[in-house]
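One example given next:
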Amino acid sequence: MEQPNATKLKVGDSKRIITNQDGIHDKLEAIVRKHLSHEFKKPYQQHTEKAFAEINSIVQAFDGEIILDACCGVGQSTRILAEQNPQALVIGVDKSANRLTRNVAGDWQSDNYYLIRADLNDFYRLVKAANWPIKTHYVLYPNPWPKSKHIQRRWHGSAVFPQMIQIGEQIILRSNWLLYLQEFQLAASIAGKTGEITKVVEGQQPLTPFEAKYQSSGQQCWQLLVKNTKN
């Protein structure tokens, strides 16, 4: 069934990812270990601090399961997850106000989900510092940055990875680029976490417009599940 406010993408025309890498980036381990051993001190952006303060008051007052939908784009996945988990508070975060408000009629928030415009490089650190009790942390179809020179623009190569990897009892990533998940899986293992990669089963309701587009193009989508044990 089509979801309300879902953004449609033209199906069947999605190009496959092209990369100049032969396998896992040869500098990934060194990059991850460097970030794990050095504090990320980039100043917070004001709009992210303001957005976090507003949603943090709601989270702190909520007595139940929290689901974080990072890089939520147009928010279709956030709405679907909220519908599938009516007992939970689902928070979708994206840096683009244009994406968040695209094709949305009326109130774009709901009783059990909120869409937040924020920079995740800042938002992740604020979430970690506030110790949000997140049950599941979704990262669905992030920008792959497939060129080798852009390794540090991928989440597992970023300076915020040490905070990101600790958020949620479990982290679920999906991508149509298997290598992205294999790299994240390796980075997670360096941080002491275990992860398992499986195929996304075709025929299930796509969580995002991109997932629908990839499947319609005949591309296999993959999922990485990282278990996050509490210290």
Remarks:
- The first strand starts at residue 66 and ends at 70.
- The longest helix spans residues 46-61.
- Residues 1-11 have pLDDT under 50 and may be disordered.
